[in-house]
């Protein structure tokens, strides 16, 4: 009986850590980019190559999508969309490492791209669903900015 109780407590602990980690990823993304994601946004997965970029997939609440698009001036993509490259300006280096790596057609996809002194980022938003793919490029270990 004690073993079952310990297993249940361990599962609760692991679940709490994973939920906290998900929210911490959104907080980190917000701190780097200055983007305020709507409440109830969920970080589904994140891939960090450990050298110079982080790729992520979030789900935004559907009732906040239009306001989010307007606030950050997302734009239409007029070029062909492939799995990880949208010519000539957007390249999600780590999308192949995500489970959710299939981008929708360009008709449903909007982009936002910006940078700071030390980082560069791009967001791709499926306007109908709130599915959002993004990537932050940060200085490499030698300190060279993107």
Q: Can you put this structure into words, describing what you see?
A:
Helices cover 27% and strands 28% of the residues. The chain has 146 residues and is α+β, with helices and mostly antiparallel strands. It has one domain (2-137). The strands form 2 sheets. It has a 6-stranded antiparallel β-sheet, with helices on one face. Strands 4-5 form a two-stranded antiparallel sheet. Residues 9-22 and 80-85 have low confidence and may be disordered.
Output the radius of gyration.
17 Å
Number of domains: 1
Distance between the termini: 55 Å
Biggest sheet, spatial arrangement of strands? 1-2-8-7-6-3
Helix content: 25-40%
Number of helices: 2
What's the SSE pattern?
Answer: HEEHEEEEEE
Average pLDDT metric: 78
Largest sheet: 6 strands, antiparallel
SS content category = alpha+beta
Question: Quick one: overall form?
Answer: globular
Uncertain stretches: 9-22, 80-85
Question: In percent terms, what proportion of residues is strand?
Answer: 25-35%
Q: What is the count of β-strands?
A: 8
Topology:
Elements (H helix, E strand, L loop, with lengths): L1 H32 L8 E7 L4 E7 L5 H8 L2 E2 L8 E2 L3 E2 L17 E7 L4 E7 L4 E7 L9
Antiparallel strand pairs: 1-2, 2-8, 3-6, 4-5, 6-7, 7-8
Features:
globular, single chain, alpha+beta, two-stranded antiparallel sheet
Provide a quick synopsis of the model.
This protein is α+β, with helices and mostly antiparallel strands and 146 residues long. It is 27% helix and 28% strand.
């Amino acid at each position: 009986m004690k073993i079952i109780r310990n297993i249940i407590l361990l599962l609760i602990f692991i679940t709490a850590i994973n939920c906290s980690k998900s929210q911490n990823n959104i907080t980190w993304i917000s701190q780097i980019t200055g983007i305020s994601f709507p409440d109830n946004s969920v970080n589904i997965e994140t891939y960090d190559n450990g050298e110079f970029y982080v790729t992520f997939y979030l789900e935004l609440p559907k009732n906040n999508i239009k306001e989010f698009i307007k606030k950050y001036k997302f734009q239409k993509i007029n070029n062909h969309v492939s799995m990880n490259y949208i010519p000539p300006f957007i390249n999600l280096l780590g999308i192949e490492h995500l489970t959710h790596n299939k981008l929708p057609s360009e008709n449903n996809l909007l982009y936002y791209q910006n940078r700071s002194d030390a980082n560069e980022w791009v967001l791709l938003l499926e306007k109908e669903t709130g599915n959002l793919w993004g990537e932050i490029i940060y200085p490499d270990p030698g300190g060279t900015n993107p």
